[in-house]
Design goal:
Number of helices: 11
Strand order of the largest sheet: 2-1-3-4
Strand content: 5-15%
Radius of gyration: 20 Å
Distance between the termini: 54 Å
Structural class: alpha+beta
Order of helices and strands: EHEHEEHHHHHHHHH
Helix content: 40-55%
Shape: globular
Length: about 290
């Protein structure tokens, strides 16, 4: 094993390797000029169907399913592996250069909203759905929402990176983050043994935030064979919860939006109208 001794002062003098080396850098700000497109709806979403992106498209599709016409939206694909998030227009919406980012143009002044949890809260309060107004249910829902914000980096940037994406397998790193992810799954399993959804008896933005990450892991959709490696079948209550959310039609639609990988029939690169699910998926476009 090669031992690494950190220098006194770190400098960026080489790519760090791995799947995302070409877009990682130690500075913020745009790398190129590129305006963002603007569609016909008040809500403009700029995203990709990563777990963080899927949270918001699920929320929007759930709102539309409840009849909130004001939740109609244009979803524009931001290809993060190509560095689209470093375009000047995107950086104006999210100075952190991460998807998803939302522009709410429904009022007299456009409102930018970035960070997926912030977008979920913004939409929940705007439409009065999926976030309880009474205590203690509101506090419980927000606690689980923010649990996801603090926990998922250990699943994604920690375990997922070292298990699936790093240029070499490092036993210490994989063991450290596998242990933490299994602890997190146990936290969820114990909570879901007590109640149907994370916030209580009702489906909320907490579930929409946690499900794409931990439901995806439970369903075997994340990081190659990680479901086997982590024995996710052991978490019976998480499995029950993941299956129930997976079956929701709005969730199935939300997973398709801004998706640029996997089966062509599941990829809707841009979404501008509900009919796009029937006519604009990649399999339909390829057949034209």
């Amino acid at each position: 094993m090669n031992r690494y001794t950190p220098p006194k002062v770190w400098t960026w003098n080489k790519e760090n390797g791995g799947a995302f080396a070409s877009i990682n850098r130690p500075i913020a700000g745009p790398t190129h000029d590129k305006e963002l497109p603007v569609g016909k709806h008040p809500l403009q979403l700029y995203s990709q169907a990563t777990p963080n992106g899927v949270k918001v498209t699920i929320m929007l599709e759930e709102l539309l399913a409840l009849g909130h016409k004001g939740a109609e939206y244009d979803a524009w694909l931001i290809r993060i592996n190509d560095g689209d998030q470093f375009g000047s227009g995107f950086v104006e919406v999210n100075p952190n250069s991460k998807i998803p980012a939302l522009m709410d143009r429904s009022g007299p002044k456009p409102i930018r909203v970035f960070e997926s949890g912030s977008i979920l809260v913004h939409l929940a309060e705007k439409f009065g759905e999926f976030l309880p107004t009474e205590q203690p249910a509101r506090a419980e829902t927000l606690s689980w929402l923010f649990w996801q914000m603090g926990s998922a980096p250990y699943l994604g940037g920690g375990f997922g990176h070292f298990y699936a994406y790093a240029p070499e397998k490092i036993e210490y790193a994989i063991d450290r983050f596998a242990m933490e992810v299994k602890r997190q799954m146990d936290v969820l399993d114990r909570r879901l043994a007590e109640t149907e959804y994370l916030g209580g008896s009702d489906y909320t933005i907490a579930d929409m935030a946690v499900w794409p990450w931990y439901g995806g892991l439970a369903k075997g959709r994340q990081y190659n064979d990680s479901a086997t490696f982590l024995s996710v079948q052991e978490y019976k209550h998480v499995q029950r919860w993941a299956e129930a959310i997976d079956a929701r039609p709005a969730v199935q639609r939300g997973r398709m939006v801004n998706r640029a990988f996997g089966e062509p029939a599941m990829q809707l690169h841009e979404r501008h109208d509900a009919s796009d699910f029937d006519t604009k998926t990649q399999d339909k476009l390829a057949a034209e």
